[in-house]
């Protein structure tokens, strides 16, 4: 973990969320430490640094570097952060782990597990989301001459909802899911425009490449991803991170990311509407009147 994270603060979300966010970018030794902490946070909170090093098969120095890479002063701060999060979980519910299902799980159990997991993911997303970055992103969308959205697969379905709502609110924008079309549109951007890319992993080339090109052309670039050290985050000026759960055999990470992504995109939409409420109210009211003419009467 060569890159130093910004200083950790308990008010910026839990330490486990931060560890999950950087896990894919860690070295092998640091990845092993992260795995042990995420699997047994209660045990690690009670371990000395020597005990944790033995459990991970690594050195005391490596443990310390891991902690500093997270923005902590050292191992004592990691234990304190874990203890704080564990104490909070006693009041708010158990520590969130990946949702797993068996082929014979009853539907009631599946529903309960999904509800708890998705609610926790949105709570963690809200806790760690950079509100100042969210404000800057909303203001940039308001100022934009044109807004490009880049997303594919599951993220595209979520992003389409925001694109359509902004379109109805009078904001010139388009969603590109084909990389050729995305690159062509990114190439036409300049300092008056905004490009928004949505990718759970932050490693999808079809999303990273057009955002990088839009930035080269001078557009303000915004990334929405679960991983703050991903290639997508590297090419964005404004990074908005989600805190989706881990992948499981019946539920890929991108599926778990849907509700956290929707939360961030909803915040952007409301931020735009708040800043343009006078004109937006008129447009949305008149659009509703027109659309209502196409509704069939109730039976």
TrEMBL record:
Key word Transmembrane present: no
Stretches assigned to the SIS domain: 137-278
Stated name of the protein: DNA-binding MurR/RpiR family transcriptional regulator
KW Metal-binding (keyword) present: no
Pfam families: HTH_6 (PF01418), SIS (PF01380)
This protein's UniProt keywords: DNA-binding, Transcription, Transcription regulation
Highest taxon above the source species: Bacteria
Any GO BP: carbohydrate derivative metabolic process
Molecular function terms from GO: carbohydrate derivative binding; DNA binding; DNA-binding transcription factor activity
Domain HTH rpiR-type span(s) in chain numbering: 13-89
InterPro entries listed in its UniProt record: Homeodomain-like_sf, HTH_RpiR, RpiR-like, RpiR-like_SIS, SIS_dom, SIS_dom_sf, WH-like_DNA-bd_sf
């Amino acid at each position: 973990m060569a890159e130093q994270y910004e200083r950790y603060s308990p008010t910026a979300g839990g330490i486990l969320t931060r560890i999950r966010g950087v896990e894919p970018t860690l070295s092998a030794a640091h990845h092993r430490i992260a795995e042990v902490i995420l699997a047994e946070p209660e045990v690690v909170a009670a371990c000395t640094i020597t005990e944790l090093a033995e459990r991970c098969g690594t050195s005391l120095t490596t443990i310390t570097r891991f902690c500093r890479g997270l923005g902590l002063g050292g191992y004592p701060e990691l234990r304190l952060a874990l203890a704080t999060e564990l104490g909070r979980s006693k009041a708010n519910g158990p520590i969130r782990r990946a949702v797993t299902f068996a082929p014979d799980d009853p539907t009631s159990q599946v529903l309960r597990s999904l509800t708890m997991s998705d609610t926790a993911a949105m709570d963690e997303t809200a806790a760690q989301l950079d509100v100042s970055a969210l404000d800057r992103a909303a203001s940039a969308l308001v100022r934009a001459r044109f807004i490009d959205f880049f997303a594919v697969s599951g993220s595209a379905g979520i992003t389409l909802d925001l694109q359509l709502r902004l379109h109805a609110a009078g904001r010139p924008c388009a969603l590109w899911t084909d990389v050729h079309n995305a690159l062509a549109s990114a190439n036409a951007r300049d300092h008056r425009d905004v490009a928004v890319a949505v990718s759970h992993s932050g490693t999808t080339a079809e999303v990273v490449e057009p955002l990088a090109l839009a930035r080269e052309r001078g557009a303000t670039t915004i990334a929405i991803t679960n991983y703050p050290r991903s290639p997508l985050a590297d090419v964005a000026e404004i990074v908005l991170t989600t805190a989706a759960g881990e992948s499981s055999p019946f539920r890929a990470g991108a599926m778990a990311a849907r509700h956290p992504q929707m939360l961030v995109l909803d915040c952007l939409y409301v931020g735009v509407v708040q800043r343009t409420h006078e004109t937006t109210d008129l447009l949305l009211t008149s659009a509703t009147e027109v659309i209502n003419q196409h509704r069939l009467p109730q039976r």
